[in-house]
Amino acid sequence: MNISTICVHGCDKRYDTTGAISVPIFASSTFAHPGVGQSTGFDYSRSLNPTCEYLEHTVAALEGGSHGIAFSSGMAAISVLMELFSPGDHIVASDDLYGGSYRLFSQISQKNGLKFSYANTAEEISKLITPATKAIFLETPTNPMMRITNIADVAEVKRKHNLLLIVDNTFLTPYLQRPLELGADIVLHSGTKYLGGHNDTLAGLLVTSDSALNEKLRFIAKTIGACLSPFDSFLIIRGIKTLAIRMERQQESARTIAKWLGEQSEVTAVHYPGLGGMISFSVKSEQVAVKVLEGVKVIKYAESLGGTESLITYPTLQTHADIPESERIARGIDARLLRLSVGLEDAGDLIEDLKAAMSTAIFF
Q: What is d(CA 19, CA 324) in angstroms, rounded to the nearest whole number?
């Protein structure tokens, strides 16, 4: 079945006999047992809830996986992932990484005994693998520099060394990229972003085709309790229905805007991989960056991405503020870099908004 159809119709699980087109919100924390030692399959919503299960099956189907697990946020999903590992285990991760992931790894996971090496995973990573290495953690495209890694190439490395390959697919979504089909073991999403798509809820998702791995992750998730609520599950399900058409429109607009940005005298670099709705670009000075952030009107100066509204972010002060300054600058995340999440507004209106903001910066 085409992925656009899966987006609209979701999985084939049905939980009522009313013929409801939209999946019901099962607003129950607990479920009655038919008898001693018997279960409907649902006992307590921290473990499993029908609305949440529908979402999990839907995202698994979109990713071409067998199992999905939903969480209260993307960071909750990554936190559960880290519990797969033991003190002394080593993980190779993308060096251009979402600041929240870096914060978790450096401030929490390392405290708990895990070790990390950061690499440009678009290039050679084998030299960083040690006997203690257990996993490779990729973002592709990376956040915020939009670097692309060939997942299939990294999958060959992980097979050679018997490692787990984890891919954060938040930026491209399964509509544009399916990492499991390229050799990944686990796919991660901040469902807050493109899957939900409306800047109105938080969610995280993990997908795998490995049943044993799924059981481990589900046990950890149930034990930690970072579950997604029935209502938030419903909002993500509703958002996914328009995922395909949103991704097409946002990508089309992003290509137009990226081309325009590349022609502007105030812009010194444009980072756009040709896919998706995310663009990062550098301007001539910090002063110009600030003027753009404060000058846009249609585009909102705010963290997050992937929603119907276009958002512009200042990584050095927002998403990547917890990365040490020297490391940020070495990766190109300086005071001149801006990250733009292209929404569903008219591309011409977004360009005019940026043009007006840049015109104030020229005379600063």
A: 54
Q: Residue 123 has what pLDDT?
A: 76
**pLDDT category of residue 362 using cuts at 50, 70 and 90:** low
Return the sign of the alpha-carbon dihedral for residues 59, 60, 63, 69.
positive
H/E stretch holding 240 reads helix 230-240
What does CATH list as the number for 3-13+42-240?
3.40.640.10
Residue 356 has a pLDDT of 97
Closest by CA to 163, choosing from 182, 186, 140, 145, is: 186
Q: List the beta strands (DSSP E) in the chain.
A: 67-71, 90-94, 115-119, 133-139, 164-168, 186-190, 204-208, 267-271, 278-283, 300-301, 311-313, 337-341
pLDDT in tens, 197-212: 999 999 999 999 999 9
Distance CA 237, CA 155 (A): 30
User: What's the half-sphere exposure (Cβ side, CA atoms, 13 Å) at 307?
Assistant: 17
Q: Where are the domains of the chain?
A: 3-13+42-240, 244-362
User: Rounded to two decimals, what is the model's pTM?
Assistant: 0.95
Tokens coding 44 = 């307590």
pLDDT above 70: residue 361? no
Over residues 26-40, the mean pLDDT reads 94
Q: Which residues are catalytic?
A: 46, 98, 168, 193
- CA distance linking residue 172 with residue 167, whole number of Å: 11
Question: In 24-50, which positions are buried (b, 16+ CB within 10 angstroms) versus exposed (e)?
Answer: ebbeeeebeeeeeeeeeebeebebbbb
Fold of 244-362: Aspartate Aminotransferase, domain 1 (3.90.1150)
CB atoms within 10 A of CB 218: 17
What are the pLDDT digits (tens) for 147-184? 999 999 999 999 999 999 999 999 999 999 999 999 99
Pairing of strands 164-168, 186-190: parallel
Whether the pLDDT of residue 219 is over 80: the answer is yes
